[in-house]
Amino acid sequence: LEDAYEVTVFERASAALEAFSSTRPDLVISDLLMPEMDGAALRQALGRVEGGDDTPFIFLSGHSDSEHNPYISQLGVDDFLCKPVTQARLKTVISRLLRRSEQVRATVQGQFHHDITELLKPALPPRYGDWKFTVVNAVAESGGGDFILHADTPSVMTAVIADVMGHGRQAKFFSYVYAGYLRSMFRLYQGTLDASRFLRNLSQYVDGDPVLESMMMTCQCFQFFHEGILKVASAGHPPPLIFSNGAISAIDAAGPVLGLAGDSPYDMKSLRLRPGDRAVFMTDGFLDVFDRKGRGTEALLQSLRDAADMPSPQLSRRLWENFLERREKSSLARDDATIIVAEYGAKS
């Protein structure tokens, strides 16, 4: 087999078992009858080693009657080849098992990523008190890192919109890690922190974690109170927009990216919205298509002057249509994009 595969040969099953974790083979071929540890014992032992149960396993034996032995058939082997066997036959079986193993692995990984992506899919409840929420999101084909988490108490709903920098599996992985931290914080503090202190505590976690320090994330914490009070703190995230009385303005909520400022406090903006006022939150993937030179907020405001009085559903559509139109003309790499429209005092 050495003309087609990298082959490692062991004279004793115990030596193969000992080397399995460091060698991590794609497939195991074993004789059945061997001194000390036979093939059946090897198969059982591999089932107790990490990755061993998922590794394709072939018995290659001259004892053809053992193929139908109930004990052997219950070991979970993938094939039983009787000696003598031709090289062509052996390679055909190996190729089939390796191909099937890769398909199974891809399916499992794909389902895992799908399940986690669905779990972290940006979403908020439709309403909280007199607040009404609309969330629109697009996931990049290569995978990105946008997610929203929230927790509510009778007096306040706290939410975080986050954007892990980068694309593909790495960004998704760090989205899972960061989301785990945030979920723990929601449970730990049970709504006792304001938006500024929430980000300060999270930044301290990141600053002391070598894994999280290796990947940058921008995020924004915002809190919705009854009577229309909105509090916002930001960590390197695009500023929210306020639509009020026919005018549009950006909330000057700026703060350093998590982990960069250590124990420094985050500035928090507190506003009181009137019935019918809207707040719009977004990620970089949305804002970047308007301008790459740091003036995206200005370009977005200019493009929405005639939308200030629109009802929230139409406003969400206008924002998203504007984004999609600009993205089609942009040379930027596709990134996750998310917007949240929060309206206070919505009647329906």
Summarize the structure.
By secondary structure, the protein is an alpha+beta fold.
Describe the structure.
35% of the residues lie in helices and 23% in strands. The chain is built from 9 helices and 14 strands. Strands 4-5-14-13-10-11 form a 6-stranded antiparallel sheet. Strands 6-7-8-9-12 form a 5-stranded antiparallel sheet, with helices on one face.
SSE arrangement:
Blueprint: H1 13-23, E1 28-30, H2 39-46, E2 57-61, H3 70-73, E3 79-82, H4 87-120, E4 127-128, E5 131-138, E6 146-152, E7 156-164, H5 168-189, H6 195-207, E8 217-225, E9 229-235, E10 241-244, E11 247-250, E12 268-272, E13 278-282, H7 284-287, H8 296-303, H9 312-329, E14 337-344
Parallel strand pairs: 1-2, 2-3
Antiparallel strand pairs: 4-5, 5-14, 6-7, 7-8, 8-9, 9-12, 10-11, 10-13, 13-14
Helix pairs in contact: 1-2, 4-5
Mean pLDDT: 84
Work out the helicity level: 25-40%
Order of helices and strands: HEHEHEHEEEEHHEEEEEEHHHE
Which consecutive residue ranges, at least 5 long each, have pLDDT under 50?
A: none
Globally, the shape reads elongated
Largest sheet report:
6 strands, antiparallel
Q: Compute the number of strand runs.
A: 14
Distance between the termini: 70 Å
Counted by DSSP, the helix tally is 9
Structural class: alpha+beta
Please list the strands of the largest sheet in the order they lie side by side.
4-5-14-13-10-11
Radius of gyration: 28 Å
Which band does the percent of strand residues land in? 15-25%
